[in-house]
Amino acid sequence: MPITKGFRALVDEATAQITTYSVEQVRERLQANDPTLQMVDIRDPRELEREGTVPGALLAPRGMLEFWVDPDSPYFKPVFADESKEFVLFCGGAWRSALAAKALQEMGMTNVAHVEGGFGAWAKAGAPTETLEAHKAAHAVRKTAA
């Protein structure tokens, strides 16, 4: 069965319907400690192990995202119910995050966007990153302080 619409067309359609921020726009918000910004890393665990992540990012694998967002799902994560936050998704190169942002919008979320160029562009721009081990340690400290 031939593919009638390729991934590039899907990504292009999604990108036309979602909010996209440049690395610099997101970096400025992080530097200003914008309390409304919640970065969401949707890459898989192998990518996180290999490349690290953005400090403070919520780790939400792409395959679970819709389940974590839906309050009716047994996998629901309450963090996604915080309407005061803007959830800015990123993946490796902004394809998965574009599709994911569009899917979340289709579910009814209005507070979702993604990062142009994804983590690849983020790292290339010299924006802050941390190893997965450092991220887990920082998260453990935040949990015990709460």
Task: Give a nutshell description of this structure.
By secondary structure, this protein is α/β, with parallel strands linked by helices. It has helices at 7-17, 23-31, 45-51, 65-69, 95-106, 118-124, 132-145, and strands at 19-21, 37-41, 58-59, 86-90, 112-115.
Q: Specify the oligomeric state.
A: single chain
Strand order of the largest sheet: 1-5-4-2-3
Number of helices: 7
- Going by helix content, strand content and strand pairing, the class is alpha/beta
The amount of beta strand, in percent, is: 5-15%
> Main β-sheet: number of strands, strand sense, barrel status?
5 strands, parallel
CATH fold-level label: Oxidized Rhodanese, domain 1
Dominant shape: globular
**CATH superfamily descriptor:** Rhodanese-like domain
Low-confidence stretches: none
Summarize the helix and strand pattern as letters.
HEHEHEHEHEHH
Mean pLDDT value: 95
User: Roughly what percent helix?
Assistant: 40-55%
Terminal CA distance: 53 Å
Overall number of strands: 5
Radius of gyration: 15 Å
CATH class: Alpha Beta
Total tally of structural domains: 1
CATH architecture call: 3-Layer(aba) Sandwich
